[in-house]
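Thread: Modeling a multi-component assembly for a lab meeting

Hi all, long-time lurker, first post. My supervisor asked me to bring a structural picture of a complex we are working on to next week's group meeting, and I have zero experience with this. I have the sequence lines for every component (813 residues in total). Could someone generate the structure of the whole assembly? Inputs are pasted exactly as I received them:
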Amino acid sequence: MINLPRAIPILLVVVVVVGACASLPDRQPAQTTDEETLSLAVTISEEMESGRSWTLPTGRHRQPIDYMSTLRIELDKEILRKIASTEEDVLPPLSGEDALRLERLPRLIELVQGVIAASDAVLDDVERLLTSEAAGLDLTTTAVREVQQTIHDEAKTRGEIITFLRQWAEAQAALSHHKDSEEFAFEVDRLTRAFFLDDRGRDVLLNIEVVGAFLCEQLEITLERTRQDVSAADLQGSVYLRLRAWLKARGAESALPLHVTNYDNIENPAAFKPPRIQYRMSEPDRQRLRQGFELARASAGFITEVRNKGDELSGSFSRVESILREQIDILWSETWKLVIGQAESIKLIRALQIVEDAESSPEKKAAITGLVTLITKINAFGSGLQALKSAVDERPSTDLLFYLEMIQDRVQDVQEVLLLSLEIDMNSLRVDIGLLRPIFEAHRDTFDENSQRLIDEVVANLLPKIEDQLLAFLNTLGPFEPLIKALATIGGFRAPTLATALKDVDPRVKTVPLDRVKRGTLAVHETPADSGDEIELRVELVDGEGQRLDEERWFFPVGRFGVGDQITSHLIFVDRVGTGGQQDPDIEFDPAPSVSWTLHYRIRVEPEGDFGSRLWTFFDPGIGFSLAALDFEDQNFQLGLGVHATLFNDLLQVGYGYNLNADRDRDYFFLGIDILQSLDNMGGIVGGGAK
Amino acid sequence: MTLIVIPRADTQEDRAEAQGKFQAAVDDLVTVVLVVYGDAQGTDEILEVCLARASVRPQVRRVVWVKDAAVLSTKQRTDYMQRNRVVVAIGLNDKMVDSLTRAKAKVRLYVEEAFTKAEGTQ
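Re: Modeling a multi-component assembly
Sure thing. I ran the full set together rather than chain by chain. Output:
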């Protein structure tokens, strides 16, 4: 038997320090301005078993809750709307040209209609004045002033139109030339000459027909921009809300999603809720086994659900898989190899970018940018196909989710290429490619030798080849559309939805429009949450595409408030009262194992709570009984029965007991520590304080 | 007459006549004036554009070609000339309202804008 009297004081100091550290309030996560704002819209109240309820402070991100309670989450629609309206602008900013169009076009269209009449009035007035002068009549000041006024008024009107034309032309010219250069002036002249010439090339005051057509064109651009803005606003401007919750069981690796009424279709895992006082050992091992079983069951349920969605396509994943294999093989062998090899397409992109940097015409620049994008997409598609092919070839039968996710990612690539291909088809790809050749050639002299070589190579070899290959590629893609649709249906979701869901958001979670936001209820008592676990609650604002705009998270450590018991094992150090005899010597702080049943009364510490309740919670005292396996007289086993008090959630124990099997001097005093909890806490402190 | 040419002058008398001719064009109550200065290379092109724009409203617009600005009086030079500009526009109020560089003076849009500004004054 080991005697450790000298170690006791040190051990006690360690225990007290460990206990104190373990009982320190958790640090609050740093809050951002957004979080503070969103937290204003959320009110969380906890309703206890007894029916009593109180509001949890949403400014604090760690607030203990009871394992048998219900959380009610109220959301303030007005504040949510205000927050949503302060999110980033959903529309791209207007360019100077767009702003000019929007500001001036309506008035200019009005003015153009009046220009002819005003101009005729000027001619009439001046003609009349000149006639009078020729007739030898004295011109009165008033008559002259009137004519000057007519000229002035007409010029003001026409001046507005000309200023608009100049601003438009200068904005265009500035894309390619320095404002003070002669080329800039030439470009302005080229862009605007037609406004001042008639059909035969003779100067006119203003060619109303040409100006009218120009304004219509500008109006069309403005309308198109407006349409785009409206659709962008429709898509992105709507803000939705997601409310999600998870349970992180103590010691568990992953978190279980929990059901929040009105916000998801999740079913809570079966809950085993021990009573607050149970008078018996909880068998933590069995509980862990049960929790593991629940986790496995939930995971199995999720996978089954995804598979069942797959049945919407064909009822047989293997059939889809075989079609997929076959089609991908065809796509791979017959199409992709024909399209563009990786090295060649990189070369083309480089050449296009060299020209793009130097090219002046916005239309051509846009065409080149479009082609660069197309080729990049095609490359991405090719890489995606390769990855998919590998996945199909090597798919382990157990890795279904990973496989599905990869398919969905590739489907996105395919869809994008298809969309692009439709656009390119409509615009006649062949013509666009044809346009590139002179552009390349025209700029050849302005580049260094390496760029020249690259461009020469592209013009001579790559361009014709790509031209044919792209057309062949587009023709080949057509028949694959059904396959792509089929792939998208596999999960029963649109591709981006499933891809996102698998990465981040459980597909059973709803996104609720702000005007339909309701109270969410999280029934903690219906979940397996118990003392030591943690519940995370997350409120998110998302846009129409599910992208997160703002979020707020709370972590609720779960405990048992009020009277509760717990059974723990302790290592006790026993000090026998009395000296014993020669056969049964004095026992001074000999270690012994014990099992303790301890009653606690835990109270909620309100944010503004009094010092007493804070102190009580800090020490977390308890009283109870313990049974110890003693060895006072070198017998194999002696049973000790004692009463004790504990501190720091049973970490430290002090008590007085009675040895049921000793012959004399049966009383003993003991100090104990909960070794497992100490190790846990030590691990938490060494590991950075994480619990 | 849309174009008024102010010739070079060697004598004081010729200069006085030229100054008078210039001032008369400026002072006309219902006409606006574009003054083209110099005789350097490219002036033909400028004159061509200015005259073309003046011709669309000959009753109101005049082009005055001053081959050598030295013929003008000091006051005229102060009032109606600007550094690095070859064309200036003079409005109905006889004040200079716009001026153009050599490059811009060949562009119909800028010349038309200069005339319009001149017409828009009172």
